């Protein structure tokens, strides 16, 4: 059968769960590093796994354009192509085709657009997106949807959400179920409770292996995002995983876990690592800052990653200032380790009965205290 | 005492030797990866070591400007700062100050120049260069010299060489000998046999732990370089290591080893790795080439490095085309592995009595045959 989810324990709305897939087990709550172009940038996949990452994300939009899904399929699928044997979730391309392309035309059928790489014309439809994700051999396939722009009027949000629901049905019809694989639907509806409820109901009628929440973390702010989660998750099935797309900062993740979310992805740890930003138990650090220039301390005394084990802040800052690739490699590694350490701590405290109520930033500091 | 050299065996002019240093043993002939700015670009030092590298090179010019030798000394020296516990050779800065700076003034005293980073003024003299290398904690310190430009008249080459010999004496006087450390002199004299002989004699009079040959691989071509080695190495002591600076391609190394050289450094494997060029048992490959786009074969079937073990040429080409950092990481790793595999093979065949006579490119292919 398709992939399966077990809810192991709950604490308030927070959930400790497990997803069994064709490519391995995923303990939830889980953070998925982003591997847009068949690589988690500046990391070898073995090293991504060493941080505790259990599943990574691939981007349909990027991969369909380069090197193409057809090429990846000929080379045995994305797992083999990029040397990541574990689970992979691919997005549908819907978000990126709207955010990365200038010339595009959306119709009931789908979205016609020009490649940002070479200007060539392409069409993404629910059927084509599902076919691409099948060729990529995605463990978890996402339904094709429109990520409703923010802000949107109730009417705009309703129209957009209902289009996504018709596309969700077409995605389901196009999906070829396989043992240990699954298809997730995506709840839309912007910040409107009635639309989120309507969307969740529509998706449940279709039936998916998991339910994502889309259209958040698009500028509405943490408070409104948490509010939207509060009136959305009660309409989602208890016995399926829930995925908050594109989120987020550590405190976003903690607050969302407290509201019943199981899965996350975000470019923040990897992108920050390439731009000299580090997440640490002492807070976020900018390694360009001159105050680190002569600091012999490790980046994060409580961290076990190679960047923290073997180097000083002074050295890491030197690498950043000299624009050395090793600086990006080490800071990316550290940030991914920090995120995975946070997820490990979250899984432990939920299992112990902590409902994670309270200020999420304070909880981050409680879970990962300065040494 | 200072570092020591043992000549283990010879085959014709080729030498199999061993250098014992304060930071470990170096089996020769040896190739030293270049770690200009306190990092072998795009590599973790553990991974550099895993290729078989025994010693790396650091650049005095770059390090004195950023992060400064004083900072590195405060942080325990270059070994600790960059997490490379093994031997490190630092150049004197003489070559780079002439090749990288626009505004410079050379006098008997030394070279005054402006930083290519921030335009600040600096002075390098034999005494200052040796002091900087001491602060860096270089296992092998190089005497400060002028790399004679090519081509040069006999008079120009003689004047330049004799200045370098006076600087070599000042370098020796400034060097503080320590257990397991050493100072190398540098033979100059361009392509003139009498000047090379005079330079070697002058250096032997001063006395060094090793003898480098400078001023080659600067545009004279392989044939003339080999010819210059042929009339230079007979004037060097048999019982000290010989280092050909800035060389080279695999065939350059083979031909130089056949002519009695023990040590090499070159940016070629690392720089090529960052520009999609790979050294393989099937020859040099450009991974940008479209013919690799759909090739499921490993980069080099005979190679044990991660790039060759876990990925296809198609994947590596995809990384290169998408300008992914992982592409530079993997190709750099492979090229360093290829160079170290070549050195391992050279050490084995010399020990077995092979004098490496014949076409050096053919010998490369014999030592590292296609699988």
Number of strands of chain A: 16
Question: Which CATH architecture of chain A is right?
Answer: Alpha-Beta Barrel
Structural class of chain A: alpha/beta
**The CATH superfamily title of chain A:** Queuine tRNA-ribosyltransferase-like
Intertermini distance of chain A: 46 Å
Low-confidence stretches of chain A: none
What do we call the CATH topology of chain A? Answer: TIM Barrel
Count of individual helical segments of chain A:
15
Beta content of chain A comes to 15-25%
Q: What is the class of chain A in the CATH system? A: Alpha Beta
Radius of gyration based on Cα positions of chain A: 20 Å
Helical content class of chain A: 40-55%
Main sheet characteristics of chain A: 8 strands, parallel
Shape of chain A: globular
Oligomeric state of the chains in view: homodimer
Strand order of the largest sheet of chain A: 4-14-13-12-11-10-6-5
Total count of domains of chain A:
1
């Amino acid at each position: 059968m398709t992939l399966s989810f077990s809810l192991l324990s709950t604490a308030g709305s927070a959930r400790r769960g497990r997803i069994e897939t064709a490519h391995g087990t995923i303990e939830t709550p889980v953070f998925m590093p982003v591997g847009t172009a068949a690589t988690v940038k500046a990391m070898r996949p073995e090293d991504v796994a060493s941080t505790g990452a259990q599943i990574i994300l691939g981007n349909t939009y990027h991969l369909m354009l380069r090197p193409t899904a057809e090429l990846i399929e000929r080379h045995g699928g994305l797992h083999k192509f990029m040397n990541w044997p574990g689970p992979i979730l691919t997005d549908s391309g819907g978000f990126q085709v709207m955010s990365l392309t200038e010339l595009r035309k959306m119709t009931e059928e789908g979205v016609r657009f020009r490649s940002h790489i070479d200007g060539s014309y392409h069409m993404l439809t629910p059927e084509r997106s599902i076919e691409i994700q099948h060729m990529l051999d995605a463990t978890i396939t996402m339904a094709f949807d429109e990520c409703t722009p923010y802000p949107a009027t109730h009417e705009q949000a309703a129209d957009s959400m209902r289009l996504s629901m018709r596309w969700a049905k077409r995605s389901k019809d196009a999906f070829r179920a396989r043992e240990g694989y699954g298809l997730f639907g995506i709840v839309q509806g912007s910040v409107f409770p009635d639309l989120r409820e309507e969307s969740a109901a529509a998706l449940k009628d279709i039936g998916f292996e998991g339910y994502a929440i889309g259209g958040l973390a698009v500028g509405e702010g943490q408070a409104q995002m948490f509010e939207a989660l509060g009136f959305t998750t009660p309409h989602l099935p208890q016995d399926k995983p829930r995925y908050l797309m594109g989120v987020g900062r550590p405190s976003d993740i903690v607050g969302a876990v407290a509201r019943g979310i199981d899965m996350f992805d975000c470019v923040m740890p990897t992108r920050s690592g390439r731009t000299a930003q580090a997440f640490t138990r002492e807070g976020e650090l900018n390694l360009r800052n001159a105050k680190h220039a002569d600091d012999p301390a490790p980046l994060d005394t409580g961290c076990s990653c190679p960047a923290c084990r073997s180097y000083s802040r002074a050295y890491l800052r030197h690498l950043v200032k000299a624009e050395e690739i090793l600086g990006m490699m080490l800071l990316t590694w550290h940030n991914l380790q920090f995120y995975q350490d946070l997820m490990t701590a979250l899984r432990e405290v939920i299992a112990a009965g902590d409902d994670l109520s309270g200020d999420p930033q304070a909880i981050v500091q409680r879970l990962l205290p300065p040494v």
